[in-house]
Amino acid sequence: MEVIDRYIYAVTQRLPEQQREDIKRELQSLIEDMLEERISTSQASEEDVESVLLELGSPNELASKYRGYERYFIGPMLIDAYLTTLKIVLTSIIIGLTAFFIIDTFLSHSERLEPVTSYLISLVSGAAQGFFWVTVVFAWMDYRQRLNSAGSGSRNKAWRPSDLPRIPDAKMKIKKRRPILGIFFTIVVMVLCINSADLLGI
Fold first, then answer.
1. CB-side neighbour CA atoms (13 Å) of 78
2. What is the pLDDT along the chain (202 residues), one digit of tens a residue?
3. Cα–Cα distance between 82 and 68 in angstroms, integer?
4. Cβ atoms of 164 and 57 closer than 8 Å
5. In the chain, is it the N or the C terminus that has fewer CB atoms within a 10 Å radius of its CB?
């Protein structure tokens, strides 16, 4: 049933990636067993499925039980997106600055340690700024989300299976390499424009 798939998806998306497949199978089996206990002969109706899902609780609560701990600074709805974005941004910064360092070293033919020192300082500074701004943006998004949730009274409203979001189409997902390449080329062009304007004729 679609609502069961949506429920399992909503729970597993709040868990670390390496646990998702095991917990997905476990949840599928648990829901089937709970339905069999209620309905022995006929096929389960939507009301039976809704009753089982309500008994299990909201996806957020169930995911918290599986995790065994709460994450507070960035909420469970955003933590996975935050970590993925952070990895993409930091990887792009490292690749972009490394590419620029190689190009700059090749063009300047410098044998001194100054370019290496400058590269390491840029790397640490860029990574720190990337970490800071990604964290600030996601902390603000999480704050707004909790504020809107409190304002609408959704915390006091009973959770229903009909509240479950649709499962996104796998074909529509953006692959990680696309934003990495985009950020990489942006960084390379920006660094070239700032530090090598004479080469570009600007």
1. 19
2. 688 888 888 888 877 778 888 889 999 899 888 888 877 666 777 888 888 888 888 887 787 787 765 556 777 667 778 888 898 888 888 887 887 787 777 766 655 556 778 888 888 998 999 899 999 998 888 888 767 655 544 444 567 777 777 777 766 666 667 777 777 677 667 766 766 666 655 5
3. 20
4. no
5. C
